[in-house]
Amino acid sequence: MTRSYKEVINEMNRAYTEFYILLFQDLKDEYGLTGQQESMLFHINLNENTTANNIASTFNITKSAVSQVLSKLEKQKMISKQVNPNNKREYFLTLGPNGSKYMEQLSKLDDVLIEKYFSKIDINALEQMTDTLKKINKVILEEKQKDLDCNE
Q: What is the pLDDT of residue 150?
């Protein structure tokens, strides 16, 4: 019996949520991070010289909402702001001391996960899963770009 896209996606979402809770929730709780704060922290870590405007655009939320989250992250020393030398009203966002520490702990956790769990899965299956996620991300980005182009 062939399952529908909806059934497969629901199962994938449940599996990912369970995976995330099993492995990362304790660390996130230790730092007192919300899901949105953690997502922005990941974005800042992966995107050098990102700005609040870039985050608002990427996450499709208001600059005010971004500012509130960034303010909390800055108070927790998870991020720091550096003035953009080309635009004094804009700040580049980078990881602060606690943000760097959080990312280091995640990296160490990855090493443990590889040793304890992922190494028990065929590497080809992991590569296929990674390729599939990349394809999904590409489709999403293309569709978002089409929507932006239509709204201009």
A: 85
Q: How far apart are CA 97 and CA 77, in angstroms?
A: 6
Question: What does the alpha-carbon distance between residue 70 and residue 50 come to, in Å, rounded to a whole number?
Answer: 12
Are 50 and 116 found together in one domain? yes
The predicted structure's pLDDT at residue 41: 97
The answer as to whether 14 is a domain residue is no
User: How many structural domains compose the chain?
Assistant: 2
Half-sphere exposure for 17 (CA within 13 Å, toward CB) = 6
> What is d(CA 79, CA 117) in angstroms, rounded to the nearest whole number?
31
Q: Which residues of 29-38 are buried (b: 16+ CB within 10 A; e: fewer)?
A: eebebeeebb
In a domain, 17, yes or no: no
The β-bridge partners of 92 are 82
For the chain, which ranges sit under pLDDT 50? Answer: none
**Predicted pLDDT of residue 141:** 87
Taking a C-beta distance cutoff of 8 angstroms, is the pair 45, 95 a contact? yes
The predicted structure's pLDDT at residue 120: 95
Examine residue 9 and state whether it is found in any structural domain, yes or no: no
